[in-house]
Design a protein that fits this description.
Sufe protein. Chain: A, binds zinc ion
């Protein structure tokens, strides 16, 4: 498989036209992330109301995979409850670790090809690490 196989149309489209790129006026949680092995950096912000993620945005720079993954993440978590976002996070992590495609992930299945390239998995997971950290801040395990 060549690297070109990674750059499926969905990934390139999100990279060229990232969704929810910018800053939220009043984020509930903000996380800064870096992937030194590739040079990707992302700021992820979530706005919650009650137990629901009502808005999400990101800023940053990096390779197409890191940016497309962050763009898809913001699409995917908006409107979800924190529990639903936690389940989504686990499903994406499993897919990127090679568990195969879960069709319920929609656009995110475009990232499945990345699971064959361990170095790029870090790029794809960067934004999701941010979601993981954000959800822990919102929902500390000790409070359960
Ligand atoms: Zn990268």
């Amino acid at each position: 498989m060549s690297l070109d196989d990674l750059f499926r149309e969905v990934i390139l489209d999100h990279y060229k036209n990232p969704h929810h790129f910018g800053e939220l006026p009043d984020p509930t949680v903000s996380i800064h992330l870096k992937n030194p092995s590739c040079g990707d950096s992302i700021d992820l912000q979530l706005k919650t109301e009650g137990d629901r993620v009502v808005d999400a945005a990101f800023r940053g720079q990096g390779c197409s995979i890191s940016m497309a993954s962050a763009s898809m993440l913001t699409d995917a978590v908006r409107g979800k409850t924190i529990e639903e976002a936690e389940r989504l996070l686990v499903a994406v992590q499993e897919m990127l670790r090679g568990a195969g495609v879960d069709p319920r992930l929609g656009d995110l299945t475009a990232l499945e090809g990345v699971s064959h390239f361990p170095v790029r998995v870090k790029c794809a997971l960067l934004a999701w690490e941010g979601l993981d950290k954000s959800l822990r801040k919102l929902h500390p395990p000790a409070g359960k």
